[in-house]
Design brief:
The N and C termini lie far apart (55 Å). This protein has 18 helices and 17 strands. By secondary structure, it is of the alpha/beta class. It is 45% helix and 13% strand. The structure holds 4'-deoxy-4'-aminopyridoxal-5'-phosphate. 4'-deoxy-4'-aminopyridoxal-5'-phosphate (PMP) binds next to helix 9.
Length: 552
C-alpha cells in the first residue's frame, strides 16, 4: 500500500492537479494490482506523511551540507504541495481516492442524479446549470477546478476567483479573522479603515469615499441613489446589451434583461444608447467610432429635454461584458462623460467585471479610456469569492447623499470581508498579477489572432489583458453570428477539460476571463484546444451562399 501512496506523493509534487493526479495514479495501480477500501483509506495520510518526511529530511541534510543544492531540490515543491493539501478537506481527498476503486463514471452518475433531483425539488427551475451535462465541481485551486471524479478543468471563465480559486493567502486571511471576530461597521475596526485606505489609493485623487456592500447589484443600486441625490435628476442612460444587476431597479437599467426573454422593455426613465461595438455596430472606423458612438448620448439627452425629464446619470461598464466582451473605442467615455456632465448628470463606471488589474495595462478599466468617473462600482473579484462589493465616489457626492437618513449595511465592510479584500490586494501586488494579465493576455490574444487567420468562422478576437472575447460567425465576410458553433466549441473545450462560456446579444462570443493565475502554458493549451475543436466541427458548418466549402 505504501508504494502507490509514495508514488502518488511524487506524482502530485509541484503539479496543479493535486487530487486528480493522485486519483489517476491510484486508479491505474488498482486496475493492475487491486486495492481494498482499508488500503485506499490510508493513502491520504501516507501521502502527507511522505511529503512531510521528505521536507524534514531535506531540511536536516541542507543544514549539514548547505552548499549541496541538490539536497533541497524537491523541498520547495514539497512545502507548496503540503500547503495546498492542507487547504483541501481531507474527507474530500479520501472520498476522491475511494472513487478510484469504482468503475469509471458509476459513482459520479449516482451523485449527479441525487444532486440534480434535489435541485429540482428546492431551487427555482429558472436557475440553469452550465453545459448539456452539468459538472459537479467539488474543489478548486488557482486556475483549476476539480470534478467529483477527480478530473481537473482549466478555468477560463470565472473572474470571481480573481487571484486563483482558494488562494491560500485569501483563505488564511478569512480564516484568521473569522476565528477572532466578525461584527459590523458600527464598531471601530482596523480592517475597515486599512482596507478603505488601500482601496482608495488605487483610485485617482478625488475618489476617496467608499461605501462597502455585499454584491455588484447592491453597489449599483446604491450608485443610482447617490446619482439621484446629487443631481436631483431621475433618469439614466444605459448602453444596449448591458447588465448591471438583479434588483428591480437594475433590471430596469439592463437591456440584457429587459429586452430578453421575460423582459418588459425600458421604463420611461431609462434611455438606451447603441452598443459602441466597432465589429458589428453602427460605426466601424476605429479612429472616429468612439466620438461618433458617444453622440448617441447627445441624442438621448435631447430627447429627455424635449420630454421635460432630468438626467441623473450614465452607467457604463469600462469594457462591456454581457454585451459581448467589447473594448470601448478610444475616446468614447471622454466624449460621453462630457455630454452627461454638460446635462447635469454624473458618470458611473461599473467595474464589477473588469476591475482589479484584469485589463493588464491598468488597475481599473476606466483608466484605459483616460477618464475619471464620479462613481465607481465594484464587486465580483473584490473578495476572490467572498461576497463583497463597494461604491467609490467623491466627498461632494457622498455629502449630497447625507440628507439625514443613515445608510447602514449589516454585512458590508465587516472585518472578515475586509480581511478578504486586503488579502486580494496583497496577492495582486505580491504576485504581480496585473502585469501577468497583460503579458499572458497578449500571448493568448496573438495565439487566437493566428487561429483566426486559419478559421474564417472566427470573426473577431478582442479585449485586453485577461478579458478577451472570440466572436464566431458563419463566415468572416458575412459576419452572420453563429451561436451553435460557439456553443459546440464550448462543449468540445469541456471534453478537453477546459471551461469557457458564451455571451453577447447573439450568444456567439466565447468569453475568456480566467483567474489571473492563468499562465502562458494555459494560453497555449486553450488555443490548441480551440484549434482542434474547430477542425473537428468545421465540416458541419455550411459555407455562405456563393462561397465554396474549401474557403471555410
Ligand atoms: N454589474 C455587472 C457588469 C455584472 O456583470 C454583474 C453580475 N454579472 C453585476 C453588476 C451584478 O453583480 P452581482 O451578481 O454580484 O449582484
Amino acid at each position: 500500500m505504501i508504494e502507490p501512496a509514495v508514488a502518488a506523493a511524487y506524482a502530485i509534487l509541484g503539479s496543479p492537479t493535486l487530487l486528480a493526479g493522485a486519483h489517476e495514479l491510484l486508479r491505474g495501480y488498482n486496475e493492475v494490482h487491486s486495492l481494498d477500501e482499508d488500503e485506499i483509506g490510508l493513502v491520504y495520510d501516507l501521502l502527507v506523511m511522505r511529503l512531510a518526511t521528505s521536507a524534514a529530511i531535506s531540511a536536516r541534510q541542507v543544514r549539514a551540507n548547505p552548499d549541496n543544492r541538490y539536497l533541497a531540490v524537491s523541498q520547495a515543491d514539497a512545502w507548496k504541495t503540503l500547503l495546498q493539501l492542507s487547504q483541501i478537506d481531507d474527507a474530500l481527498a479520501r472520498s476522491s481516492f475511494m472513487e478510484a476503486l469504482e468503475p469509471r463514471g458509476k459513482l459520479q452518475t449516482i451523485e449527479h442524479r441525487a444532486i440534480t433531483e434535489a435541485r429540482a425539488r428546492h431551487l427555482a427551475a429558472m436557475l440553469s446549470a452550465s453545459y448539456d451535462q452539468p459538472l459537479h465541481i467539488v474543489g478548486g485551486y488557482m486556475q483549476y477546478l476539480y470534478e467529483s471524479d477527480g478530473s481537473a478543468y482549466l478555468d477560463c471563465v470565472n473572474n470571481v476567483p480573481h487571484v486563483g480559486h482558494c488562494h491560500p493567502e485569501v483563505v488564511r486571511a478569512i480564516e484568521e479573522q473569522v476565528e477572532r471576530l466578525n461584527t459590523n461597521t458600527r464598531y471601530l475596526h482596523q480592517n475597515l479603515t486599512t482596507y478603505a485606505e488601500r482601496l482608495a489609493a488605487t483610485f485617482p485623487a478625488g475618489l476617496d469615499i467608499i461605501f462597502f456592500v455585499n454584491s455588484g447589484s447592491e453597489a449599483n443600486e446604491l450608485a443610482l441613489r447617490l446619482a439621484r441625490a446629487h443631481t436631483g435628476g431621475s433618469d439614466f442612460i444605459v448602453v444596449d446589451g448591458a447588465y448591471h444587476g438583479n434588483t428591480g431597479a437594475l433590471i430596469d437599467l439592463s437591456p440584457y434583461k429587459y429586452k430578453g426573454p421575460g423582459g418588459r422593455g425600458a421604463p420611461p426613465h431609462v434611455h438606451e444608447v447603441p452598443t459602441p461595438d466597432v465589429y458589428r455596430g453602427l460605426y466601424t472606423e476605429t479612429s472616429t467610432a468612439g466620438a461618433r458612438f458617444a453622440e448617441g448620448l447627445g441624442a438621448a439627452i435631447d430627447d429627455m429635454g424635449a420630454a421635460d425629464r432630468k438626467l441623473a446619470g450614465f452607467i457604463c461598464e469600462s469594457l462591456l461584458s454581457c454585451a459581448g466582451q467589447i473594448e470601448l473605442p478610444a475616446g468614447y467615455l471622454e466624449r460621453a462623460y462630457e455630454l452627461v456632465r454638460g446635462a447635469g448628470g454624473v458618470c458611473i463606471a461599473d467595474e464589477v467585471q473588469v476591475g482589479f488589474g484584469r485589463v493588464g495595462t491598468h488597475f481599473w478599466g476606466f483608466e484605459t479610456q483616460g477618464v475619471v468617473p464620479d462613481i465607481v462600482t465594484l464587486g465580483k473579484p473584490m473578495g476572490n469569492g467572498h461576497p463583497i462589493g463597494a461604491v467609490v465616489t467623491t466627498a461632494q457626492i457622498a455629502a449630497s447623499f447625507a440628507d439625514g437618513m443613515e445608510y447602514f449595511n449589516t454585512f458590508g465592510g465587516n472585518p472578515v470581508s475586509c480581511a478578504a479584500g486586503i488579502a486580494v490586494l496583497d496577492v495582486i501586488e505580491a504576485e504581480r498579477l496585473q502585469e501577468r494579465s497583460a503579458s499572458v493576455g497578449d500571448v493568448l490574444k496573438s495565439g487566437l489572432n493566428e487561429l483566426s487567420l486559419r478559421y474564417p468562422v472566427i470573426g473577431d478576437v478582442r479585449g485586453r489583458g485577461l478579458f478577451l472575447g472570440i466572436e464566431f460567425v458563419e463566415h468572416r465576410e458575412t459576419r452572420k453570428p453563429t451561436a451553435d458553433l460557439a456553443r459546440s466549441v464550448v462543449e468540445k473545450l469541456k471534453e478537453a477539460r477546459i471551461l469557457a462560456s458564451t455571451d453577447g446579444p447573439f450568444n456567439n462570443v466565447i468569453k475568456i476571463k480566467p483567474p489571473l493565475q492563468f499562465d502562458e502554458a494555459n494560453a497555449g493549451r486553450l488555443v490548441a484546444a480551440i484549434d482542434s475543436a474547430l477542425s473537428s466541427l468545421i465540416v458541419r458548418v455550411q459555407p455562405p451562399r456563393g462561397l465554396p466549402a474549401s474557403k471555410l
